[in-house]
Amino acid sequence: MTDQSYDAAIIGGGHNGLVAAGYLAKAGLSVVVLEKQDVLGGAAISARSFEGIDARLSRYSYLVSLLPAQVIEDLGLEVELAPRRFGSFTPDPLTGSGLLIDKNDARATEQSFASINAAADFDRWNEFYAKTEQIAQKLFGTVLEPLRTESEVAALLGPELWRDFFVRPIGEVIEKTFESDLVRGVVMTDALIGTFASNHDAELDANKCFLYHVIGNETGEWSIPVGGMGAVTESMAKRALEFGAELRANCEVLSIDDNRVVAFSENGQTKTISAQYILANVSRPVLNNLLGKPKQHSIEGAQVKVNMLLKRLPKLKSGTDPVAAFGGTFHINENFEQLQTAYDQAVRGEIPNPLPCEIYCHSLTDPSILGAELKASGAQTLTVFALHTPHSLLADRDHDAMRDALEKAVIASINSVLDEDIRDLLLTDANGELCIETKTTQDLEDALGLPGGNIFHAPLSWPFVKDGAQLETPAQRWGVDSGLPGIMFCGSTAQRGGAVSGIAGHNAAMAVLETETQRKK
C-alpha cells in the first residue's frame, strides 16, 4: 500500500517541474512535486549568500531569454523581465578602447566599432544578427509544439540559413563573416556558454548552444528577472498551488519501481506514493539511479560561476563609464583566438590563462535585489561566468584547492582590464569574510544534481528530430520520452530543454494530457 496516489508525480521542484505542475493542475489532474532541497526553484533561486548582507543574488541561473510569453500568459505568472540598455562591452587592449554595443544608439555603436579599428564589421554585425532574428522568428514558435523533423525545419528556414547555422560549424561562419578578432570572439561566446567546444567544432555542439542563445521569444533578448531569479520560480510555485498542485520540499526521492511507486524521505520517515505518470525534472543519470540502473555517465559541464558584492563598480583601464560597461554583458579575454587558446589549454588539463570571463551586474538594471542601506551606499552585485573550465580539470585533484585556483584565475582575468584591484572593492559579511563565492562544476553537481556540473543536464540537442525518428507516442512527439512507459522527462534533459525556459515543463504536461485523452477514448 502506498500513502497516496496521484495522476502525476514530479521529481524535482526546479522551474520546469513547477511549470509542468501548473499546467497539469490547471487541467484538473492531481499533482505532487517532490523537491529534495528546503526551497523550491532548483537552479533558478535567489539567496542571501553572504551572512548579514541584505542582497538577494540569483545564485545559479541569472538571465532569462527562453521563457516563452505564452507560458507566462497561460499560467498567469507574475514575472517582470527588465531589458538591459547595453548589449555588451569588450575591452580592447590593442587600442585601449573597447566595443560597446548600445542597443538604443546605433550611431554610438558604429563609432565604437571604429574605435577598435573594426568599422567594416559594423554592417556585417547588423546583417549577421538580422539572420539570427529571422531564425528566431521562424523557429521559436515551434518549441511549444510537437517536434518537427530536420527536413521540415530546413524547409522552414531556407537553404542559406540552414547551411550557415545548422550545417557548417558556427565558428567557421563567424570567422568568415567578421574581420576583427575581438568581434569574432564576442559573437562566438554565445556558442560556448556551458558548452566545452573548439571554435571549429565539427560536432556542432557549439551551433546548438548558439542557436538557443539567439532565438528566445523571437528576438534573442536576454533580460534581468526583476526581484532576482527566485521571483520567477516563486511565481511559478504560487500559481501551481493556486491551481491545486501539492508542492513538498525537503523530500528526497529514494527510488522508483516498475509500477511507478515512488519512495522518498520526508521528516526522517520513508514514505511512498504511486502515480499514473512520473515526470522526471532531473538528469538521466539521476533518474537511472532512482530506477536502480547504473548511474555512470560521461557528461560534464565547463564553467565556473562566481558571485561578488562590491562597494561600487570598478574603474576601467579603457576609461569607459562603468555603468555602461557593466550595463550589459562584460566580455573579458574572450577574443576569438583567446577562446581557442583557452580551449586548447583546458584540453591539456590546465586552467586557461587568461581565463575567458563574462560579467553581469544585475543590480544596475534591478536595484530591488539590494536592501535600502546597500542601495544607498552604491553597492553593486557582480556575477562572473568563466568559460572553458571543464569538469575534467577537477579529476584526481583536491577540490577545495582547485576552487581556490579557479577563483584566483577569475580575479586575475578581471583585474587585467581594471584600473584597480577588484579585491579591494569586495564588501565583507557579518563574519568579516569577503563577499565572494565560487561554484565549480563539482559544487553544481553536489548541490543541484547536475551531472558533471552540466548546466543543461546533458549536451544540448537540436529543437527537431532526424527524418524517420520515431514519433508514435505523445512522449516521443513532444520530446520528453524516457524510454519507459509512464515516465517522461520534464526538465533540461528533454529535447528543447536547457536554460530557464519552462519549455520542457510545458511539453511534458502536453504529452501527459495527450496521453490521457488517448487513454480515455
Instruction: Tell me, briefly, the overall form.
Output: globular
Largest sheet properties: 8 strands, mixed
Indicate the radius of gyration in whole angstroms: 23 Å
Percent helix: 25-40%
Instruction: State the CATH superfamily name of the largest domain.
Output: FAD/NAD(P)-binding domain
Total number of helices: 19
Explain what this protein looks like in three dimensions:
This protein has 521 residues and is α/β, with parallel strands linked by helices. It folds into 3 domains: 200 residues, FAD/NAD(P)-binding domain; 186 residues, Guanine Nucleotide Dissociation Inhibitor, domain 2, CATH 3.30.519; 103 residues, no CATH class. The protein has 19 helices and 19 strands. The strands form 4 sheets. Strands 1, 2, 9, 10, 11, 12, 18 and 19 form an 8-stranded mixed β-sheet that branches. It has a 7-stranded mixed β-sheet with strand order 7-6-14-15-16-13-17, sandwiched between helices. Strand 18 and strand 19 form a beta hairpin. Helix 1 runs parallel beside helix 10 and helix 5 packs across helix 6. It is globular, with a radius of gyration of 23 Å. The mean pLDDT is 97. Its main location: mitochondrion. Probable oxidoreductase that may play a role as regulator of mitochondrial function. Interacts with COX5B; this interaction may contribute to localize PYROXD2 to the inner face of the inner mitochondrial membrane.
Chart the SSEs and their pairings.
Elements: E1 4-11, H1 15-26, E2 31-34, E3 46-47, E4 57-58, H2 69-75, E5 81-82, E6 86-92, E7 97-102, H3 106-115, H4 120-139, H5 150-157, H6 159-167, H7 170-177, H8 181-188, H9 205-214, E8 224-225, H10 229-243, E9 246-248, E10 251-256, E11 261-266, E12 269-280, H11 284-290, E13 304-310, H12 322-325, E14 329-332, H13 336-347, E15 357-360, H14 362-365, H15 372-377, E16 380-386, H16 399-415, E17 436-439, H17 441-448, H18 474-477, E18 481-484, E19 487-489, H19 503-520
Parallel strand pairs: 1-2, 1-12, 2-9, 6-14, 12-19
Antiparallel strand pairs: 3-4, 5-8, 6-7, 10-11, 11-12, 13-16, 13-17, 14-15, 15-16, 18-19
